[in-house]
Amino acid sequence: MKSPRRLTRLSTLLLGFMLAGCGTLSNVAPEAEVPQKAQRVCGDPASRHIDQWLPGMVEQQSPAMVVGVIDAKNKRHYWQFGVTDAEHNYPVNEHTLFAVGSLSKGMTAEATAVLVAQGRLHWSDTLETLLPPSVALSEDAKKITLLQLVTHTSGLPRQNMDLPMLTAFVRYLGNGENFYAHLDSDNVVADLADFSKPASDEPRYSNLGYAVLDYILRYQTGLRADHLVESLIFAPLGMPNSSFTPQKLKSYPLRAIGHAGSQPKFIPRGQVVPDWQFTGNMIGAGGLYTDAADLLTFAAAHLGGSGDAALDKAIHDTMQIYYPREKEAANIAWVTDTYGEQSITYQVGYIGGYSSYIGIDRKNHFAVVVLQNSFTWQNNLGHSVLRQMLEEQRHYATCHLATAA
User: How far apart are CA 401 and CA 42, in angstroms?
Assistant: First the structure.
């Protein structure tokens, strides 16, 4: 008979192997397609409207998709196809609600950054001072800073690696149900007692870290992460169709219903899967429902400012790079990829039956949102649209210079 310790090691190995290909609530990085080089002469229309080239880039991987774009002239464009689900058959548009998974982390991190801008918290605060004295912490856990939590550089793992988590994950593969009950509970901080920091400081995506962040925010402010986001982000920016309790929104009955795609593995693609519900420490990490219009409003504040001093300071902090590298450089919740002279700062989300993306090119004043109602790894459209927008802009600039000469 295997010992409990050996079983734990075995479950950790199996869970790590299985989750290596499962980015639920993670930042699985997209790959940008090579931009379509303009084959037009300058006598032709110098710049095509996005509706002329975007549909050709779309592969229908979901029952529905909504794409929102902010162009260099600060104009918003929307493109959509499909329906919420086969039963209700509602066409989707920019006001259709989708679950957006880890895009929730971006909102929670930004609310945390507002608290820092207000002087209520500090990026250098450590878990030893941020958590209640009753929480047992290893020596390595005591030294984790607030900044390390929000940039995924704390060294904390993606989630707890144990037999109950493995069992819940295996069930998810067949029924699609939420397997993060442990992280959603207050027991999540118990994982800090035995934490040992990895040798490398490179970013490691951590749902556990953001669950701990939710716990900290509630302990330090008396408010849950979702309430902080609603008051510090949604209200000042004017995002009326965004909520961590979507049932209270008028648009909830018309929401996009989640479907199986690349995951869960043993549910046929295109079958409806259960919504994931969080009520505790995972709500700020993965509980958000929103629409393309509100996400473009959020993106617009990162391109042109919000007019709120504390929020603008928070935006400045979150968009900085804290761990530089060419691909997946670590910002606060955001990630940055560099393609030559173009830098794309983005977030992705995968949860239940949904995939989501928000990407920003601040230098060229572009933003793209992509929402899908299936779990699909082929979440590359957002990056590719931002790359193509730059190609179109360069063609316009070349023709303009040639005409002027």
Answer: 10
